[in-house]
Amino acid sequence: MSLSEEDIINILKESNLPGDIVGIGDDCAVIPKNKNISWLISNDALAEDVHFSLNTITAYELGIKSVKVNASDIAAMGATPKFIFVACAIPQNIDNSFIKNLIDGIKQQCKNYNIYLLGGDTTASKSKLFISITIMGESESKKIKYRSSAKIGDYICITGNPGLSAAGLDLVSNKIMRKEKEENDLIQSHISPYIYINESNFLANFSEVKAMIDCSDGLNRDLTRICEQSNCSANINLEKIPVDKNLLKVCQKNNSDLNRYLLSGGEDYYLIFTINSNFYEKISKEYLSKFNKKFYKIGEIVKKKGKLISYFQNEIEYKNPYEDFDHFRNFVA
Hints:
By secondary structure, the chain is α+β, with helices and mostly antiparallel strands. The protein contains 10 helices and 12 strands. The strands form 2 sheets. Strands 7-9-6-10-8-11-12 form a 7-stranded mixed β-sheet. Strands 1-2-5-3-4 form a 5-stranded mixed β-sheet, covered by helices on one side. The protein is globular, with a radius of gyration of 20 Å.
């Protein structure tokens, strides 16, 4: 198939929505509930041998991850997840115990996030397992963070370490033995990523935090989405991107290029956001005090130019040679 994920999204976009409804183009659709509150709605699918392999993840872990990745879409806009609907297409080779454990994982993660499971659907599949979750969240309308709100001069910040899930996926796909702690930790980052719900709710309290997105498709791709929707460009300092020590060890051991993971690795789900530079120190200190960890300033929003994202290594421009993560190209199996 020659169409990319982005191509299909653009084909689906509806331009005739009522003015108070936000449709395709952000992490969630936004529908006003009343004068002050809005519903946020999103859907994410997980397909066997595209997003997961049954050889490397348990049914319980898969249930947990399916809720997590959907909750991240709600968190990406500063909202709180509330309800989910689950649909599954199940092949005949899946036994009853697997289905029970999958449901147990879904229910447990719903409990962890105070999400209510309201319904869904099941059907048969000829060969592969398919899970689709529709999630609803809620937020004060004025606190919702959109991709289109970045301003020139904003600092670009991230809440976590890039590349962990992609490295874990490579370890799983290449069937490298899980002997070293750093390898196991990276694989766990792929199987059960951390979702920044509390952090996003905190950041949503500040009007000085402008645009926000979760990193599902890699730093380069998701920051590009902010730039496209905000009609701006970005300058990124590679030396400012936080590097996880386990990722660094694995890259050194396997002679892998660290920047490929940092810039193009998908499914980490940390938050990418822009912040008014005058309020960076204040908000970063409050964030550190509340969560006992910091977020990282990695660059700046600049006036739109030919290249949406420019990378610099010690003030020397770096040309990113890597393709972005795409679900139609990046397979687990």
